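Bug: token stream looks shifted between consecutive jobs. Job 1:
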Amino acid sequence: MLSTKTLGSDALAFAQTKNLEVECVDFIETSGLAFNIELINLSVFDAIAFTSANAVKYFFENNRAAALIKDKQVFALEGKTTSGLLTRGITTNIQAASADELADAIIKSKTSHAVLHLCGTLRLPVLGDKLKKAGFDYAEIVVYQTIIQTGKKVNKSYDAILFFSPSGVEGFMEQNNFGGETVCCCIGKTTAHTLKEKKNTANIILPEQPSPLSMLSAVSNHFQNHHQS
């Protein structure tokens, strides 16, 4: 199996318990960007939204991050984004599986009117588009950049491939392909949609939760069921 990003030691250990052999190749790289909190009128915003774990990571590298988020509602994607906030003592008011569903939940809750979105350079526009259309004040702070590694080529076939983001799909598909027997596990619907656009015959499965462990479980269960049938 190929993972299109490096997995943590916990995920690799879990894969071993499932008898899954995993090779990791990073098809994206991220790095933090300097951002000036003082340029944002914080009093305007009553909520902060995070749509990636990297946004959490790089945002909190700023020494004024805790002051920015204090007394604000926090909206975030489920999985590593939410858990990254929790490890910093921050609980989320609204969680969702995708930016699309997060926007719908924010609008439906009617608890906020102005959202500041902490994000990366390759963020999808869906959150901002939906909130602005619904009459919300919306602004972004870009706290990191994503660099797609388009030159990496793998010279073997895999039974399964793990995709963690639309940009990871872009990086992999630039130089690589896969056959119809390959199982593609995408971390969420947005990533799956991007892969389907690139290869409409892709055999895609989704995990129960947007996390590496859940993705590995989904692949293991798929192979077990396929073997039994």
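Job 2, same session, no restart:
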Amino acid sequence: MISIAMATYNGEKFLEKQIYSILHQTILDFEIVVCDDHSQDSTWQILERYAKNDERFHIFRNEKNLGFKKNFEKAIGLTKGDYIALCDQDDIWYPRHLEILLNNIGDNMMCFGNCDTIDKDDNVYKIRFYEDSQQYRYVFTDSIKKSCRFLFINSPLQGASMLMKRSFLDKALPIPDNALFHDAWFAILGCFCGLIFTQEKVNHYRMAGQNVTGMRVHQYTPWIMFKIFIKQLIYNEHPLDRTGMVQSILERVDLNDNETKFLKKSLQVLSVKGNIFTCLQNAPFYIKHCRHIFTF
């Protein structure tokens, strides 16, 4: 069985469209675990109505607001299925969302699918989340190469298009306190546990300001990548602090010697603070891995 973990908060505007798309999947053997983060609109009433008529719904309401990361963690922790799919409250799933991810996950711990992005009126943006170019080709390579972009720039894979195995949760939970986004933590950890990406589109991902994580999606042009490279090379300046997550991976995952060496060096590089001469000591590392860090 597949468990769908949904986190809701003041989602009345788009919630029923998302639920409708879930109920019309080609795979119907699932449960829906919804944790509502103390919504102040009609979100809870909508959930109650569906739960009353469909035994697959299991709904929980937080007594106080936990924030999206902790709310997702709670929802995931309440699931019972062999596979867990994360679900935002304002997206629209394609009918084969679960089928595609399940068919592609194989021996991996997690699978991410592609998606179209839509606005508040369901209009599809011309620029998709993942272009059909080679922009994200690194996700098909080994653990070290695929993790470079995640560690030193950002995670371009989003949780709303993700399916993971229950055994993955033994390493993934609890989410480290210094991880800003639950899906970024899962993706970085997945690089060293078994992660695969499929270009098949599984959902419409809404970029309407309602989705917290949607605002961090960027189109990285070669010029933007070059500026990031210079900042890292000269100032050791990174978009996000990944040191805590790297330390957590070292503590939770059985790594091979090369992976351990790489992550320990990454931790050292990410932790360097000081003047330009101190930061330039990391230059050999950035040059060695620049192809995978700055993939475009």
